[in-house]
Protein 1
Amino acid sequence: MNRRKKIYSKLSAKAKKANLRANPKNKPKYISKAERAKLESLDDEDEQRPDIAIQ
């Protein structure tokens, strides 16, 4: 029984990994609330700066 169980678990793990590689997740990476606030403050700061014209 143990031999059969080991073989089955190895084969099912291999099939599961192959399935994960074949179907990658399209979910965007999680960004924490603090990180989002930081990025938003940087964007606001960039908008407030006057642009200097290159002559």
Protein 2
Amino acid sequence: MTFEKKDSRKQSAHYKNNNKPVAHSNNQKDNQTEFKKDRKFSGKKDFSRNSDNKRTSFKPRNSDKFKFREESRLADTQAHTEHVKRKGFSEFQLRLVTSILEDVLVMHNSLDRAYAFWFNKVKIDPVEQGFLIKQINFMFSRLSLFAFVSNLKRPSDFERHVGRLTFAYCAYKDWPLPELEGEEGFDRRGLKKRIAEAKDDPLYNDGCPLWLQELGYSELKSKWDEERKALGGESHRFIRTNTIKGTRDELAHKLSDEGVVTKSVGGVPLALEVTSNSALFRTKAFKEGLFEQQDAGSQLIGQFVDAKSGERVIDACAGSGGKTLQLAASMEGKGVIIAMDTEAWKLEDLKKRAKRAGAFNIEPRLIDSTKVIKRMVESADKVLIDAPCSGTGVIRRMPDSKWRDGREHLKELRDVQADILERYSKMAKVGGYVIYSTCSIMPSENEKQIEKFLENNQGKFELVEDKHIMPSSGFDGFYMAKLKRIG
């Protein structure tokens, strides 16, 4: 990992097993700094919780209370934006933003865990919370850009100068600049020039670290430029209608009554896009199990499986069951879906979600030995293998995950994918189907895995169809392939 500049014309995340590769790269000629010596940004240290780390305490002040804070009573995101554009972040907001940035950059926790911790600790209105999340997500989506503007060249610089990132962000947005304590040596005069330079560089402007640029171009060639730009954009918020308990139109009306604004999604019949900053999980509709939060692209995988009433379906890498619940609903409670995973806590979470959803045809099963798979050979009409992957299709949703170099894990990951596909596919009956899917957009994890599998299993499986969903579609990126067992 270096800050070395590459020719972007020539080179035009996170794993489901909780490996979240993150690399940092500023690619300007005058910043040729080697990061591999620093373990914190080398990809050898995860963003998972470190029990030895202790967060700085957010000390509440009287002025933090709702009734004292002007910005806490604004009606919508646009009102917050206009307020901050005129007055800047409030002292309260700055302390909260800094706490979240330090949690990720200093404590090395994931951004989603930082949000969960701080928004549980510091209660604020959902609209203000949504506004702050939007700003912080953008900071992480362009971390290399703001690092360049802030003149931060090493990982250790982030730990000492987190405040500079917020300062650079406000300068980028042309908002009032916050106080910058203890930064007497920081050159503020060159901010506009450095911002202009960064915007002219496609990797900075798209928020693309060098490792991801090199990987994306090597795998996708000329297609990568469009996908790189899309991955640097803002993610959309989608939910899936639970058809066990109602229709999409009924769900939209009930959410509207609770102040949640949604719109239908073309080509995804169960999906609604949430367009308001609403506390979805506090709604009565959620508590009654009327929907689950699930990307529209992910919902297309559930459609692709085409699970039918009365079938025996296996979700072999179920996790906490997002796709499992969709399959159970499409089966109308008839037949059985066996949800399998190697992590017991994920299956426990699935049980709670299934109860809320009214999905009673799900049978969780822990994979605690190879015998579990062998006992189920040729037992299923359909087997979904949602394989562990690099997560390159979903880094827009988790912008912190791209700042560690994920390439060193890829070979091991491809081996895991091939092994799972080889062993788990045997659970399909002759005449049944295996559906292989990932949330990666890299061919080496997708169609090349299928090609290799078919070559090794000639006369046993045939490819029925496969599909790519790319981030440029507006959804997260996914791949899916349907194989029929013929022998």
Protein 3
Amino acid sequence: MNSINKSLIYSLAESYLCMLIQIASSMIIARLLTPSEIGKFSIGMAALAIAHMLRDFGVGAYMVHAKELTKQDMKAVFGIAILTAWSLAAALYFARYAIAGFYHEPALAEILGWMCINFLVIPFSSTVFPLLMREMKFHLLFYINLIPTLLSSGLSIYLAYHGYGYMSLVWGSLANISLAAVMATGLRPRYSFVLPSLKGSLHILAFGGKASLTNIVAQIGNNAAELMIGKTLGFASVALFSKAQTLTEMFSHQFLGAITKVYFPAIAQRHRDALPINSAYADSTVYITAFAFPFFGFMALYAEEIILIMFGSQWLASAELIRILALGGCLYAITAFAPNTINAIGKPGLLLRIQLFIQCFRIGVTLPAAFMSLSMVAWAQTVTFGVGLFIYLPVLRYLIQLNAWRLLGRIFAANLIMAALALALPFAIKHYLEVQGLPTVGLLALAGGSFALSWVVALFVTRNPLAGQFMKMLGKKP
């Protein structure tokens, strides 16, 4: 098994285990805290998420992309990370009352005040993660991400049970970041222990600044919905939308995020070696949509059951939002690797311009939707993913000679019929099988088990390209 496959296995294992821990934690905390308490924390995290994109000023992307990474580069990277993160900590700390006043919620000042500590700690780990990614040491990233997630989730549950309210989530987040920083420092390569410096930082900032601005623009767009809902529809509505978005983003943040961690350094290496990229992008997209289409289809089909089991009946209003956002997830999967591909070939300025257009469009359609209903806000996000599809594919045709029509033909020919076959039995179980006496958890377990089995069978019956890839990873001929 080659290094890419090993890295992919470690990355997927880390992602899935962290996801299971976070799901279990969310299921428990949703029953210990009220929607209003969770909504307050969600607003605080939405504000912090934008700042998080600026904290390392894109140096992580530079470390993965750079053809050579010298010791002076690492000193400059560390210096930039400290300067930006600590400056953000100070800015957020002094702005916390203004943000709380905007939402007329004093609790936000307390949340933001404590969460600023994260920015003091993050530079000690933020430069380690891209270095380990560049060297494909995903076995170390496995431990650095998994153990803090497990312990911080346990802490949040313990504190929520003992009545600490939204602060239980704050303390859990602080514990996660702090422990990850300690572990990253202990497991980083010896040659990477350097003192911070700003000497030679200009060429890093030239790349990293554009990458950082791109991330900021993307985060503003991604969090705009929650920020607008909090102002127009209230904190409980923020929590409902956040739950739906969290579930649908499990695919992009957990599963797809795990693959992207491997895809980005692998494509960057191909670019450094002057190897073609279009076939790698096309194959990766066909594989990922073989997961995405059935996954989002099942989530839309069993939205109520998933909400009931995970969060309880008080969150059932999120089910309609899940169905709408699931369609957006399918559209997003087709161009999910596009931003990383553009960065990997050294075009951060172009990616910035694309993201500026897409996120301005998203904010423009989300703002009026936030005065209407949560469903309209969800539709605004889905329409935005459709617009992104029609922007990224022509750009990739120009940059890497990707044949967009051939790619779409491969995706739909390989995955639409396969997804329909995989979902046929779960659909029949829900709509035609007499299961009145079966509890919700039993129904979802039966449907989920049949879906997993049907998906595997459908892969091989339709001779999906992903089935052949699985066989190769197992060391067998397809």
Protein 4
Amino acid sequence: MTTLVLSVHSAPAETRSLLAYHYAQAALTLGHSISQVFFYQAGVLHGQRTVADPHGVTQAWQQLATQHGFELVLCATVVEQDYQLSPDALAAHYTLGGLTEFSSAAARADKIMQF
């Protein structure tokens, strides 16, 4: 089966964010694996403890990652420079990383999907 890395660039309130989550669910159901979900640009807001999330996708990502053992990585540069979020403001299961972590995961993956 295929190993995937997902890159989510949309905020939790956007439908593309929900689409990314449903894509991940479907891929896992079909037997594929996900090694990392990398949140970039407005996507880093998924990791914020208090966020406008009408779809409940932030918590859904946490549950899916725990259940299937993949990483939820927020771009540290975007978190710090664009949104000025402190590590205390981040939800459980989300870690800070950079494009190096994303590139390494992408190099090992069979496919990369961006939302």
